[in-house]
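Quick one - inputs below.
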Amino acid sequence: VGILDADITGPSIPKMFGIHTRPEGSEAGMLPVSSGTGIKVMSLNLLLPDENEAVIWRGPIIGKVITQFWEEVIWGQLDYLIVDLPPGTADAPLTVLQTLPVSGIIIVSSPQDLATMIVKKAVHMAKTLKKPIIGVIENMSYLYVPEIKKKIELFGPSKGEEMAQATGAPLLAQLPIDPELAQLCDNGEIENYTSEVIDKLGQYLSKMSLSSPKDSKDS
Amino acid sequence: VGILDADITGPSIPKMFGIHTRPEGSEAGMLPVSSGTGIKVMSLNLLLPDENEAVIWRGPIIGKVITQFWEEVIWGQLDYLIVDLPPGTADAPLTVLQTLPVSGIIIVSSPQDLATMIVKKAVHMAKTLKKPIIGVIENMSYLYVPEIKKKIELFGPSKGEEMAQATGAPLLAQLPIDPELAQLCDNGEIENYTSEVIDKLGQYLSKMSLSSPKDSKDS
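Output:
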């Protein structure tokens, strides 16, 4: 599996995976950096001298970097390449959907009406560009408070089914807010996270048959 | 007070304020729409036939819309014009900082290291473009659970002071996650929200002396 971090002005993948190695380059291209469990990652933050440094770039350059991450990185043989996008419908998602041979889109939403509205815009974009939506994941769906053995719906009742209907794609998972996950992300140990919901999601996704991006690229 | 919604691809201001009126135009320009308490709002979502519709625009057009919202909207006499920006350091913030006579920037962060990193990039951007940072607000700082009379730090311990140091600006407020606020936002009733933290923040901000944007524009 590979992850192409297409959130150029807010790249968070390397930090979550605890990757701080600079990518090596060769004449053929740049090599992605492998995580602890062997996930190949390419992100602009790996190329910056300091992770807090800002790239103050306008859209055309952002689009160009994403295209380079696709064309000039030696991804090798992958089962899947996951492209992580920022929210909204500006340059990054537009470039990815128009330039990369995307097999499908996973929509990540949250229960707030506000978030649902922004996500519906993304759905509209996907439909306009005729890219299939594979499924919907509802993030920050609830918080489980062990002391009172109760789920609290912090951002209101789930909009998961509504989003599934709006996209015509299945609701793949409802992820809770989990302080342990937040902690692991901050420590660069996201790969140590286990939960029943994530296990089920993994099983579901591994059963899906998608055309591999590399195949699509070759064809 | 006016609010210019510069989050063109994810505009959430009208929904939070329950504004659905289309802005009226005249030869002199377009009129902002007033909220229940008289805040003047201009947002791309007010101009779309359906709030869920997506604008699939690249950076240059996004920048142009923001410039038009500043130059061609008849804001009238305002104490303050607040410009709401999306996260990151792409076209929208760049256009605002380079084109509008910004008196100061309020940085909104959250306690996660990940968020702090992205916000530090924004701080870096502000410093590069020599724009003053007025203060820092930490959002989603904690959740208060009444049943157990306890604050839960969902995203880890506060990074507020760290952010204040990084920016050299005061920590203006630590806002909790509040399901009531989420509900009010979804209902378009954000103006009905009251809390001690917000009251204090309002008092602090009203005491600040900033040059009015309209003055700056005239000068």
